[in-house]
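Field reference: sequence -> structure
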Amino acid sequence: QVQVEESGGGLVQPGESLRLSCTASGRTFVIFTMAWFRQAPGKEREFVARISRGGGTVNLSDSVKGRFTISRDAAKNTAYLHMDSLEPEDTAVYYCAADWRGGFRVEDYQHWGQGTQVTVSS
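Structure field:
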């Protein structure tokens, strides 16, 4: 079993920054890729970013490139999503996902966290 837990969400104003954390526990040797998805009200869950175990492979969605970065501490089985220049359109529940070879789709990941709310509003 693998457990995934996010933290760090909250309410911020436009232009501010926030860092989300995601920690995996349990059978973490089965995890190679960790990723972030988000789901806004009334919309489908969408890919935001993913990172390989050693950080050698990083992908970001076009909507967050230049504003968000993803990093990982493999020793701590923790991934981080650094979000700068936040916009109201970034408001969503952010989910962390983990799997051996996760891709860009929701169905590529078996292990999910419960999600953390990020609200960007003045």
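Note: The longest strand covers residues 18-26.
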